[in-house]
Amino acid sequence: MTTQDIVQKLWNLCNVLRDDGITYHQYVTELTYLLFLKMMKETGQEKGLPKGYRWGDLEAREGVEQLTFYRELLLYLGTRGSGRVQAIFANAQTMLTQPRNLKKLVDSIDDLDWYSARTEGLGDLYEGLLEKNAAEKKSGAGQYFTPRPLIDSIVHLVKPKAGERVQDPAAGTAGFLIAADRAIKAETDQLFELGEREQRFQKRDAFCGVELVPDAHRLALMNLMLHDIEGELALGDTLSPLGAGLEPADVILTNPPFGTKKGGGLPTRDDFTYPTSNKQLAFLQHVYRGLRRGGRAAIVVPDNVLFEENAGAEIRRDLMDKCELHTILRLPTGIFYAQGVKTNVLFFTRGEAGKDKGNTKAVWIYDLRANMPAFGKRTPLTREHFAEFEKAFGGDPYGKSKRKDQGAEGRFRRFTREEIRARGDNLDIAWLRDESVHGADDLPEPEEIAAEILEKLRVAMEEMEGLSRMVEEAE
């Protein structure tokens, strides 16, 4: 039985819980509690759990007694468990109200082919479950999940190395951190080529992150644990003083949430030069300020980060001064949960010590958006879709490989800093005519068109708010 088969079996159990009125996202959280207990048993790590509060203790009970004990177990582990166990079960509550549903879940999990699951990797099984949840629109979990083919492509290009500190300030379910760890392990024979001290660093200190949403944080902790990563993953807001206190990183890989700062207020960071309520612009400032000298980053941002005026233009200028912004990838539409939001990946390197001006001489832009299929369930995004971009990018993680401008008919073009300056530092540059939309039959879904209109209105409102603040300050 493959990991995919096991994931499908687990996902089908969601139908069992319809009677309890449980949503997909609640189901995955519920499964996380139960799978954690079972996986601790399967991997021989139950010594990390208090005696009397383990899988066997839950399995031995039935009916109302089992459900009552399960509630007690969640409370106990969330308040008296060891470090990471307590974090995973913090404020844990079951949504189950019917004992027969809990028994069905426990029995079904127990009956899975755990030999195959262990062989293929329990971490891969859990990743598959998170991906299934993200793909289900009704779950609302897509906002915490970046498509794995995109993550793998970015990690392949940025090439995090053993000994480097890797950060994700908007970790979601920890996809970037796990992919970076996987890549480093593949390069070092599962870390066996490293000395004992270096191995300890990779396991405990190499990876760190922050996640704002408690449920996503819980899923991320479980994900990291199953991949044997002990790095710090804080529950909190990177756009608060917590983010300012993060240790500088050699590599930052992230996909910050879309939209404005919750409640429309400004980030509470006092180290940002350019205050803004635009979350992505604030995260962008965090990323380039949080890199060590010579460090490299890749960040997923919506189009408005490339063209927004006022603070947006100032932040882009600051970015191109302090860093070498060497590559922008214009992503296809439809690959994220938020329909209508067009996105890009910015790849850049922090300037060396004493060099905070004029680091960007030219920007290479790859258009993977025009004349691409409409991605979704019928046409899933795969790693193969990034093959030509990866070839054009080259093997140097700092963007120094020999590159060729493909001209007006090609997807890859070079724009000098002078050309960008003449555009008012607007980086939203497109040159290919999109032939993929020919008629009414090829138009996006109505909700996608509506979402795009709403996104443009949101940006316009932010511009108006920014202008209003400037007027108030001038008075």
From TrEMBL:
Catalytic activity entry: a 2'-deoxyadenosine in DNA + S-adenosyl-L-methionine = an N(6)-methyl-2'-deoxyadenosine in DNA + S-adenosyl-L-homocysteine + H(+)
Entry-linked SUPFAM superfamilies: S-adenosyl-L-methionine-dependent methyltransferases
Gene3D superfamilies per record: 1.20.1260.30, Vaccinia Virus protein VP39
Keyword Transferase tagged: yes
Keyword match Transferase: yes
EC number(s) from the headed UniProt entry: 2.1.1.72
MF term (GO), any: N-methyltransferase activity
Native organism: Sorangium cellulosum (Polyangium cellulosum)
Protein's name according to its UniProt entry: site-specific DNA-methyltransferase (adenine-specific)
Family: Belongs to the N(4)/N(6)-methyltransferase family.
Highest rank taxon of the organism: Bacteria
UniProt domain N6 adenine-specific DNA methyltransferase N-terminal: residue ranges: 7-108
Alphabetized InterPro entries for the sequence: D12N6_MeTrfase_N, DNA_Adenine_Mtase, DNA_methylase_A-5, DNA_methylase_N6_adenine_CS, SAM-dependent_MTases_sf, T1MK-like_N_sf
Top class in the EC scheme: transferase
Boundaries of every DNA methylase adenine-specific domain copy: 121-429
Keywords: Methyltransferase, Restriction system, S-adenosyl-L-methionine, Transferase
GO biological process assignments: DNA restriction-modification system; methylation
